[in-house]
């Protein structure tokens, strides 16, 4: 695995692939472009998660053979490590329907390893601009499979676990980390770890920003909150933020 200092003003790319020769080739292709830069290469999924968390790339090219069985969970882990990053799956070949499954899971593109190098550059630029990249022969196939079903990419808020939502419900009521930990019978450090994961997933930096995010995203915590009463010896607190509506 290789890592470089993060340059400024360029699209930051992470390559995750088991094949050294492919990683080397893709690095050279992107290295010839002024607007693109490879920050690191990963040989395994854990390495990719580590580099994503450390370097916060804009774009990740990820080998299909390295994807765990549950693609949605894998996408969530990468996005939690680098909020806002785009993911493109590289593959020698994919089974019928696999393109649709991956896009539904949240990836921004699928590209075959056999295409011309210039197409990898074009793919990188288009995906960063917000487009979905697919092999031409798969577009019509996906259209047929989708039919009238809208294609939606999960929002960061949809990636929150039940435990994370429970902790958020306490937080927006004004609970301190120590009080949340005592009520849930977990350590205060565990609460901090959960909050750090939540901050990364939704792209906020502190408790107030998270409370505002919950309001603007209309995250429904009502059922969770009713199962989480304040301790009897604690007075009710004012919610951290209010809607401007």
Quickly describe the structure.
The chain is an alpha/beta fold and 245 residues long. 46% of the residues lie in helices and 12% in strands.
Word description of this protein:
- Strand 5, helix 4 and strand 6 form a beta-alpha-beta unit.
- Strands 1-3-2-4-5-6 form a six-stranded mixed beta sheet, sandwiched between helices.
- It is built from eleven helices and six strands.
- Helix 3 crosses helix 9.
- It folds into two domains: 145 residues, Rossmann fold; 71 residues, Winged helix-like DNA-binding domain superfamily/Winged helix DNA-binding domain (Arc Repressor Mutant, subunit A).
- The protein has 245 residues and is of the alpha/beta class.
Write the SSE topology.
Layout: E1 2-3, E2 11-16, H1 20-31, E3 36-42, H2 45-55, E4 59-63, H3 71-81, E5 86-91, H4 98-105, E6 109-112, H5 117-128, H6 136-146, H7 162-171, H8 177-184, H9 188-202, H10 207-216, H11 222-226
Parallel strand pairs: 2-3, 2-4, 4-5, 5-6
Antiparallel strand pairs: 1-3
Helix pairs in contact: 2-3, 3-4, 3-9, 7-9, 8-9
* Mean model confidence by pLDDT: 78
Low-confidence stretches: 2-7, 226-245
Query: Looking at this structure, what is the CATH superfamily of the largest domain?
Result: Response regulator
> In what order do the strands lie side by side in the largest sheet?
1-3-2-4-5-6
Class by helix and strand content?
Answer: alpha/beta
Overall form: elongated
- SSE string, helices as H and strands as E: EEHEHEHEHEHHHHHHH
Q: Beta-strand percentage?
A: 5-15%
Quickly name the level 1 CATH class of the largest domain. Answer: Alpha Beta
Give me the Rg, rounded: 21 Å
Tell me how many strands there are: 6
**CATH architectural type of the largest domain:** 3-Layer(aba) Sandwich
Q: How far apart are the first and last residues' alpha carbons, in Å?
A: 50 Å
Number of structural domains: 2
Looking at the structure, the CATH topology of the largest domain is Rossmann fold
